[in-house]
Task: structure prediction
Amino acid sequence: MPRRSAAALAATLAVLVLAPTAAQAGRPGTWTALTAADGSNTDQVGLARTPDGRLHVAWQRKTPGNSVHDDLVQTIVSESGRVGPAQTIASNWIGIGSPSLAVAGDGSLLLAAGATNTLDPGAIDSIATWRSGDGGATWSAPARSTPAGGFADDLGLAFGADGTTPFIGWGSTFGLFVHRGLDPATSPGNFQTGAGFGCCGYSPGIARDAASGQLVVAWHSNATGHVGVFAQQVDQATGNPTGAPALMPGSTTSYNGGVETSYSLAHTPITGRPGRAGVWLAYEGGYPTTKRVVVWRYGASRASVIATRSEGLDDVGIAVTPEGRLWVFWTGGRDVYARRSNPAGTAWGAITTAPMPRGTQTSFKLAGNAQSGLLDLFGAFERSGPGVQTWHTQLRAGLTLTATPARARAGARSVQNIRLSVTDAGAPVAGATVRLGSARGFTGAAGTVTLGIPAGARRSTLTARATRMGYVDGTVRVQVR
Result:
């Protein structure tokens, strides 16, 4: 349900650009505050990038001067990371849940959120939608788009293979639902009960296979005997389940004689790939402490573990570049981490890291959307203040640098050559600058360069470093012994 309710009259739709000036773009890894520090730990932003390259970000906030009511707000983040001014889409509603955004085949935007505007008969008390055909400059009046009833904040939203029919997913104690289209008289399909599962299914994500047109919903189930992350194909003619639900490998853990799972309390991370086959999911694995980042191509018999952290990790998410590379990101301690794949999604580059905003005590959510060379990342963090605040940063992919051999002999009478190889998710990187001690060189088409350790070198540990524009540096140690 929406987070709050109260008997009061809400204002009608308002589209208003607020006074605060747009924030300047910071260098990758620098955080810019997006929201006020008065949010809750359930807040999630909705993200969608339009064909012009601009990233649209939507969220709900407390109505200024009336903290028991909600506003629906949008802004635009440029490709360089500049955060634009906030635009109010709806104001002073009784309750608005976390919104979701999607882009139709014609480039128009659809925004959906669980919402209640008034308590009057006939008022919106379900999932409401707004449309924009001019890149978010103006928005339509809100429309009630699903049957009334209970729903959780986390909504899945995607367009079907025709590029015009939206599918909205939500969870509740009554099931995991997918609704076809925007007619509230249409009954949704129930994937949780349709699979024979009991209570409950939550936090759906929906994605489409760009090659086959197949639409897939993924969700978290905590039903007795059916725990974990499940994914199932959606019948695009009806919104009903088709085929059997598949359990994501690695989303459950054997523990004390039973099967357990950890619930991330966020949209189930799922994505298709533009112009390419496959639907991909990411989730945290392990119980009671989640220690693994698990990535799974829907339908595959196995998942891949692309990162581990013995102290625990959380907030796993996934995004895709226009070229089909996958970005997976997560939190651990006071840092955020990210890793990018090759275009096939079969190999992974170096893990890049950025500290959370200064003073962060707890992280709650991460959301991401990828460009060709950058990941736009949003984190909901609680610092020393009174509430949760969402921030934005950008991350670059990391270079991987290896040395062969990685050990040289101290006091050698002649130069000892070290072959240094620079890769990005397994692919050679040409034109990288590599330094080893006082030596410097540039990688060729094979991504390699040979540098020498001088004759008579003393015992030491040298750090070789590879740099190239658009990447985070790669390093490797060479022991001189």
Summary: Residues 400-480 form a domain with the Immunoglobulin-like fold (CATH 2.60.40.10).
